[in-house]
Write a structure and sequence with these properties.
heterodimer; A: 387 residues; Thrombin, subunit H; six-stranded antiparallel barrel; 19 strands; B: 252 residues; alpha/beta; Rossmann fold; six-stranded parallel beta sheet
């Protein structure tokens, strides 16, 4: 699929809809609220994006490095001393991640100077690029250093530097995500108003969406890393209400699925509070909370794609894939979207009749007309964005 | 915002743990608001341009979170928002107080440089707009979790009355006043209130820049103006709740 190469939220974005009977249809994404029924509950991730890319130097060798923060034990704003991080050698986002050089050999105790931030490698995490590091200084100094020096993590398919404002969704709250929970980009205030006017309930959780690519296949295979999340009591109440009344729980983004299903516990009862999502959602996962997902488009083999296998069978996924390619859907965090409802058990979702209702009149390629879509074809070793 | 008491007698306690961000927090009204809200138990992050002044306030009030930034600069806004949310974890009350007079000594509009008008609008209108927008997700989250988030934009009678020589300032404050009212209409259904309040003529550095020979005895102290503004916010909170209930957002 073609990567969306500009950080704009296109009015002409497309949405592929997969119904519970396996039927596929294409609509304008702005019409997403029309898919909702009174009583449905929409849950989104309100994490804002940290400026998690920190350029600087490895002091023992003087080598230039880029540190990408990738994991943390808690969402507590005071718990910013320790992070796990992926470290690259020289270069920046213009170089595809898989072509980035390794950093110099990192050892425990090595000092890193990242702009104004002093950091120390506490230990290596069984991969030359993956470290556990400690920031020195007070909590305020660490936040100041991150806020002033850090940049949003970025990949080569977007050629111009992103501002933090590009990486914050309209509903962005606590700055805890390492990359944007990109499905929430579609939730502008007008859409939220349409949703609530349909008597659909809207709630949020906060989930520290992790990085989507490390440039190394063996590390990428371990994604997503563990991600802390917080589920407010208000969201739990909405979900319980929907279940009591037989309404749907619709997750905006894969992180919401991961958090809600992790918090549901063995008995399926959703609990409020903080947790750390450690599981992968995959084919065998029995979804106990979420009935449908609105998310970006991603390529087979990615953890995101695996997650969809918990919703629909492989034949349906193949259909989805073909449809996305045929209709030139754009991928990655600023791309087009899909809405997938969990296929009723026993349903053979191989409906070849593809309905194509009239969209808002935009054809499939207008989103990329200025630059020529092929220019930004991502290589297959990009890990599609996990949100 | 925590409003777990049912009577006005308990008003002082409603601020306990409330997360407040104040721009222009190192002098005049902003400084007074920082001090009073800290005394009342709020968690306060404040923003100002001058690093030494920020450090000075933090030395006096080490429990406060000082942030160096310029709200008139587009590129500072998300850095400021990140630090506010890093310090407080969320926001219950945002006070857009930082303000610029425009060219001083005050001059007629005919003598006002376009660049000076632009800069005044950047500080007094676009700055509050951008910072509020960056924090809107957090304010809405506060409301969803049962709190009563408020944005207070500091206004002026110059927003209403046409005073000669106050063109840049007056026009920027009039625009902010109207923006506040429109935003209040849009956000009230989500549980977010946007207020525009005039603290009156105060004995502050800004006022002495505008009217250097004013008689201080005719001016309100920034402390009493701050108390009046806080009382008005409390009125809004109590009117909203009737018998207020505890809010999860504020208890954290």
């Amino acid at each position: 699929m073609i990567a969306a190469s500009t950080p704009t939220h296109r009015r002409d974005a497309k949405l592929l809809v997969v119904g519970p009977d396996g039927k596929l249809s294409h609509i304008a994404r702005t019409n997403f609220p029309a898919l909702l029924r009174p009583g449905d509950v929409v849950i989104a991730n309100d994490a804002a994006t940290l400026p998690a890319s920190l350029f600087g130097s490895h002091l023992p060798t003087g080598a230039k490095i880029e540190v990408r923060l990738a994991g943390r034990e808690s969402l507590d704003p005071h718990a910013v001393r320790y992070f796990s991080a992926v470290v690259f050698g020289g270069g920046d986002f213009h170089t595809p991640t898989e072509h980035r050089p390794n950093p110099p050999e990192l050892r425990s105790g090595d000092a890193l100077q990242l702009g104004p931030i002093h950091a120390t490698v506490v230990r290596l995490l069984d991969h030359p690029r993956l470290v556990f590091l400690r920031f020195e200084g007070s909590t305020n100094e660490i936040w100041q250093g991150l806020a002033r020096h850090g940049r949003p993590i970025q990949y080569a398919y977007i050629p111009t530097p992103l501002g933090l404002w590009d990486a914050w969704t309209p509903i962005a709250g606590p700055p805890v995500a390492f990359e944007p929970p990109s499905a929430s980009f579609i939730l502008n205030w007008n859409t939220l108003d349409s949703i609530t006017r349909r008597k659909v309930q809207f709630g949020t959780i906060t989930h520290a969406a992790g990085i989507s690519s490390t440039g190394d296949p063996s590390l990428d295979a371990r994604l997503p890393f563990n991600e802390p999340y917080r589920i407010p009591e208000a969201a739990v109440n909405l979900v319980q209400d929907a279940r009591t009344h037989g309404r749907r729980v619709i997750a905006v983004g894969t992180t919401v699925v991961r958090a809600l299903e992790h918090a549901a516990g063995a008995d399926g009862e959703l609990r409020s509070g903080e947790g750390i999502a450690t599981q992968k959602i995959r084919l065998e996962t029995n979804l106990r909370v979420v009935d449908a997902i609105l998310t970006g488009t991603h390529e087979p083999g990615s953890s995101h794609y695996e997650l969809l296998r918990a919703f629909v069978n492989d034949e349906t996924l193949d259909f989805i894939d073909r449809e996305l390619k045929e209709h030139r859907y754009l991928t990655h965090e600023f791309g087009d979207s899909i809405f997938v409802e969990k296929i009723a058990s026993g349903q053979t979702a191989t409906n070849r009749e593809v309905m194509v209702p009239v969209t808002s009149g935009n054809n499939a390629t207008t989103g990329n007309s200025s630059s020529g879509p092929e220019t930004f074809l991502p290589s297959h070793s990009y890990m599609p964005h996990v949100t | 915002m925590k409003t777990d008491s049912g009577s006005h007698a308990d008003q002082a306690t409603i601020w306990h743990g409330t997360r407040v961000a104040i721009t222009g927090g190192t002098s005049g009204l902003g400084r007074a608001l920082v001090n009073i809200l800290l005394d009342d138990g709020a968690e306060v992050a404040f923003i100002a341009r001058n690093q030494e002044n920020v450090e000075g306030v933090v030395r006096q009030r080490p429990e406060s979170h000082g942030i160096v930034g310029d709200v008139s600069r587009k590129n500072d806004i998300y850095s400021i928002a990140t630090q506010i949310l890093g310090a407080l974890g969320g926001v219950d009350l945002l006070i857009n107080n930082a303000s610029s007079l425009g060219p001083v000594p005050l001059v007629p509009l005919g003598d006002t440089n376009c660049e000076d008008l632009e800069l005044t609008l950047q500080t007094n209108l676009l700055g509050p707009f951008r910072l509020t927008k960056a924090l809107l997700g957090s304010l809405a989250a506060t409301a969803r979790e049962g709190g009563h988030p408020i944005v207070l934009n500091i206004s002026s009678d110059a927003a209403i009355n046409a005073y000669p020589n106050w063109g840049a300032y007056g026009a920027s404050k009039a625009a902010l006043h109207h923006l506040s009212h429109i935003w209040d209409q849009e956000l009230s259904p989500l549980g977010i209130r946007v207020l525009s309040l005039d603290p009156g003529d105060m004995d502050t550095p800004l006022h002495s820049l505008a009217i250097p020979d004013a008689d201080p005895s005719t001016l309100t102290s920034p402390e009493s103006a701050a108390r009046e503004l806080i009382a008005k916010i409390e009125e809004v909170l109590f009117a909203k709740e009737g018998a207020p209930k505890a809010t999860e957002a504020a208890i954290q």
